[in-house]
Structures are given as structure tokens and as C-alpha cells.
Amino acid sequence: MKVTRLRALMWALLSTLLVACGGNQEASSVAKTAQQPQQVIKWKMVTTWPKNFPGLGTGANYMAKAITEMSGGRLEVKVYGANELVGALEVFDAVSRGTAEIGHGASYYWKGKSVAAQFFTAVPFGMNAQEMAGWLYYGGGMELWEEVYEPFGLVPLAAGNTGTQMGGWFNKEINSIEDLKGLKMRIPGLGGEVFSRAGGVSVLVPGGEIFPSMQTGALDATEWVGPYNDLAFGLHKVAKYYYYPGWQEPGPILEAMVNKQAFDALPADLQAIVREAAKATHMDMLANYTAENNRALRTLVNEHGVQLRKFPDEVISKLREISAQVLEEEAAKDPITQKVYESFKAFNSQVVEWHRISEKAYLEAREED
Ligand code: CA
Q1: How is domain 41-161+251-290 classified at the architecture level of CATH?
Q2: How far is the CA of 181 from the centre of ligand 1 (A)?
Q3: Residue 125, helix vs strand vs coil
Q4: Edge-to-edge, what's the strand order for the sheet holding 307-310?
Q5: What's the Cα-to-Cα distance from 152 to each of 98, 178, 206, 230, rounded to whole Å?
Q6: Which residues, other chains included, contact 254 with Cβ-Cβ below 8 Å and sequence gap of 6+?
Q7: How far is the CA of 131 from the centre of ligand 1 (A)?
Q8: What is the whole-number distance in angstroms between the Cα of residue 239 and the centre of ligand 1?
Q9: Architecture (CATH level 2) of domain 168-248+307-368
């Protein structure tokens, strides 16, 4: 206390002197900024991804670097890959209890905590990346997500999107819905519920464990992300057929979750930096995937002989039918999930109408010769 009072007195004296010497208040505050010791806040970012994993892990790195740089080093964020500090699927609890201040992952991993959380990553046959961003930022989605995470002491932020994913890797052809029966497939979230209802067995396995699980036969099939990421994991070495489209994840959002106490303790400018860094990461990741997926797909097909297959219309239409039932049933599980689902559904139906005559019409027009 004594030191603080002495320092305040010195500043007052210095200001007076500056004014007396023909300086002004502005000069005095410049002097203050230049000389006051900088307080550095250090945050740990735990992630559900292997460290530096292309797109996802590097997306987390991007956000940490953006926060550190934009804050001029006042808020330093250090990234930990899955299992470095906590396991991939322990990220939610770790940030919730404050072991780490921030986490990067996907909200559908936490459906055991909240059924509603699944809707903020991906909804089968739901919205794509562009539409999800519209719902979250301008359609009330973010506010609902905040409401869902609030009881856990977490602040959610949208911090990435992979764009439309691939349907997954199989070792046999899928010619009818019967072919899914009994298949043990890594497929998380609502897509997993649909897959189970279609006769398969959905298993939640973090990214880093997919390859060994396919090798040992613990899994018969898997979806992960898309060519960019699936090539990085070498999934073409453990499965023959690569199916599209990714009906289960049409535009999945990646999340950054912040411990609410840690967030509230930040000054307003650092809070703004964290929020804007998440938005920048969101945009950057989608651009990264758009650029890399195409390149990786060519490598998979041309260099590794991967067999590309489209799900038959009959399979897709059955999965779409099951999805509609699953969404209704999941939503009915608790009031907040119902509220989230209603908001999602309303935005979805409106944006579909607009995109039918804009994005979709354009993509079709581009294909015509
Ligand atoms: Ca996926």
C-alpha cells in the first residue's frame, strides 16, 4: 500500500511538472503508458486435437498467437495438445474447473454434459458453414450457446469450421441401408445417434485414436473430417472406400471455451481481443480447409488409389428421414435443448429458402456447360 501511494504521488508530481514545463495531460499519459510495468496474464489452452494437427491443432495455435500478438503480449496463451495436460475428452471439465483457462474442441463431444451442446457443432442434414455462422452471430445462436454453457462456468466462442465434411471411410461398399447394420463406426454427436438408429453402432473416439482403432478392428468404419485431415491421419491405409457427402457434418463449428471467471477477470480490451481472435480463427480455418481439401483429395485418389464413392440416394433419403426423427426426440429431452432446436430449425428453414435461389442455384448454374 505504501509503495502504491508513493508511486501515485510520484505520478502526480511528474504530471504537474510536465504541465508546468509546457507539457499537457496527453503527454503525461503517454509517459505513464511508456513507464508503467506491463502485467502479463498467462493462459493455458487445452485442446481435443493432437498438437499441431493440420487445420484443427494449427487453428488452435492461430487463435493463441492472435491473442498473444493483438494484446502486445499482455495475454499470453500457451497451447497444449491432447494428452499433454489433459486427455482429449477431458477438455470441457478442465476448463470448467479452471485447470486451464481456455480450451479448443467441438461442442458435440460434450453431449454427456448437455444434449443441447451437440447442436452447436453440427446437425445432420442441417446448415453448412456459411449458414451456421449466420445463425450463431446474427440469428440468436451464440446467445443460446452461452445459456447452455453458463451452468458450467464457461463462455463459448465459435472458433473454426471445416466446411462440409466427408461421409467417412468403409471397408465395404454401402449399397443399401442394410449395409450399415452392425458396423462399429466412429461418428460423434447427432450424426452418431442417426447412425445407431439406422442399425450401426456409433462410437466416440478422439481423432488421435482413430487410426489404431481401425487397425485393430475395434472400429469397422470411421468419419473424421475431410481429405486434408484424413490424409494426415493416413486413413487411406486402413480403409478402402471413401464416401461422400458428409450428411452428418455439413458445416461443423469448432469451439473455443473460456473459463468464465478467467474471462470476467480480464479488462474490457483483452476480452474484446479474445472474442475477435476467435472470429478471425473461425474465418482463417475455413479458408485453410477450402484451400487444402482439394489438394489432399487429389493425392488420396491419384497417389493412394482411394476409391471415392457417393452414398446411394436411397441411403441418403433414409438417413434424412431418421435424422428428422432423432432431432425431434433429442430436442424433447430437456427444455433448453428444445429451445435451441426451435431456434436452429427456424433459422434453417428460412436460410434454405434464400439459398435455394442464391448459393444452390449458382452452384448448379456453374456446373452447366
Ligand atoms: Ca467429423
Answers
A1: 3-Layer(aba) Sandwich (3.40)
A2: 20
A3: coil
A4: 201-203, 184-186, 221-222, 168-170, 241-244, 307-310
A5: 11, 40, 22, 32
A6: 56, 59, 104, 105, 106, 121, 158, 159, 160, 161, 162, 282, 285
A7: 18
A8: 16
A9: 3-Layer(aba) Sandwich (3.40)
Report the SS3 class of residue 157. strand
Which of 170, 213, 165 lies closest to 189, judged by CA? 165
CA of 187 from ligand 1 middle (Å) equals 7
Other residues' Cβ atoms within 10 Å of the Cβ of residue 217: 10
The larger pLDDT score, comparing residue 112 to residue 8, is at 112
Greatest alpha-carbon span in the chain: 88
Q: How far, in Å, from the CA of 353 to the mean position of ligand 1? A: 26
Summarised one tens digit per residue, pLDDT across range 188-232 is 999 999 999 999 999 999 999 999 999 999 999 999 999 999 999
pLDDT of 143 strictly over 60: yes
Cβ-contact 230, 209 below 8 angstroms: no
Distance 225 CA to ligand 1 centre (A): 4
| Residue recorded with cell 429451445 | 339
Write down the mean pLDDT value for the chain.
92
User: pTM higher than 0.85 for the full model?
Assistant: yes
CA–centroid distance, residue 168 to ligand 1 (Å): 8
Domain ranges of the chain: 41-161+251-290, 168-248+307-368
Between the two ends of the chain, the Cα-to-Cα distance in Å is 78
Cα(296) to centroid of ligand 1, in Å?
16
